[in-house]
Amino acid sequence: MQVRNHKGWIAGRTLALIAALALSSSTAFADAKSKVVILATGGTIAGAGATAANSATYQAAKVPVDKLIAGVPELANVADVRGEQVFQIASESFTNEQLMTLGKRVSALAKQDDVDGIVITHGTDTLEETAFFLNLVVRSEKPVVVVGSMRPGSALSADGMLNLYDAVAVAAAKDARGKGVLVAMNDEIQSGRDVSKAINIRTEAFKSPWGALGMVVEGKSYWFRAPVKRHTTSSEFDIDKIEKLAPVEVAYGYGNMSDAAYRAFDKAGVKAVIHAGTGNGSVAKHIVPALQELRGKGVQVIRSARVTGGGFVLRNAEQPDDKYDWVVAHDLNPQKARILAAVALTATQDSKELQRIFWEY
Ligand code: DGL
Prior knowledge:
alpha/beta; Rossmann fold; 2 domains; four-stranded parallel beta sheet; binds D-glutamic acid; signal
C-alpha cells in the first residue's frame, strides 16, 4: 500500500512538473515576438527622388531591403524581422515567371517553424495582382501581407515607413491568421482578393469594392469583416504543384473597337482571353465572330468588365454565355481575372469547371 501510495505521489508530482514546464514554455512563447520575414521586390516603397519635394517624380526600385528595415527601427518593437531581396523592379515589369519565383519563396518560408508571418514590399502598380495570386496558391494560414507606398521614402510625408510598420504589425498578429493574403496600405487592411489600385497619384490609392477588412492603428489590428471566397488553405491550387502559369491576355472594350487584339492573341498562342467589356461585360456584335473562332480552337473566353468598383458580370444577362460557351469573371476586374485564369488553366481546360472556379474564388 505504502509503496503504491509512494509511487502515486511520484507520478502526481511528475505530472505537475510537466504541466508547469509546459505552461512556462508556452508563456515564454507568448512573450516571444513573432518572427517576420520581409521579402523585397522593389517599387516606390524602395524608390528615391531628387528632392524632398519630388513626391511623384522619382525612380522606383532603388533602396535595398536592409535599408528599408533600418529606416524603420520601430519594426523591432512589433516583431523579430529579417529581410530578403527577391527582386528590385518596378512592378509594372512583373512577369509570370517572377510571380512563380516569389510564390515558391513565400510557400517555402511559410512552411518553416521559425517564420510566423511574411511581408512583401512591392510596387503598387501590380500589387493587387501579386496579392491575389498568392491568395490562390500559398497553402498556409500564416499572415502574408503585401505592402507598397505611393511616395518614395525621400519625399515629404512619405507613406512607406508607416505602411511597412503596419504591414509587419499585421503579419506578426495572431488574429491575422487564416484571413487570406492581406494588403496593408494607408492604415487599412485589405483583402488581397478584393483590393485594387483605384487612384494613381494619392496615398489613399487602394480600394476594395466590398470594403476593407479592417484597420491597423499604432501597430494594432482592428477587424470588421472576414473574406468569404476560397483562399490559401481552402484553395484547390498549390504553388508547389504548379510548373508554369497559362498565357492569358486582356483586351479592353470600347465603342468602335476592332477584333485585332483578339486575332493577335490567337497568333500568340493564348489559352484564354479576358474581355474587359463595357457595362456588364458587353461584347460588340462585330467582335463575336473572332471570339467564336478562338473558342473553336479551345481558347477560353472570359467576360470581365471595364466597369469595376461594386458590381459583377452576370452570366446569360445581355450576353448568351451558355450559347457561346463563355465564362463570366463575376466581380473580378480584368487584371485579377487574368491571374485566376492563368492559375485555373494549369488544372482544367473545361469551361464549366472554370465557371465554378470564378464563382468560388
Ligand atoms: N513603377 C510603379 C511600381 O513599381 C511605381 C508605383 C508604386 O510602387 O507606388 O509599381
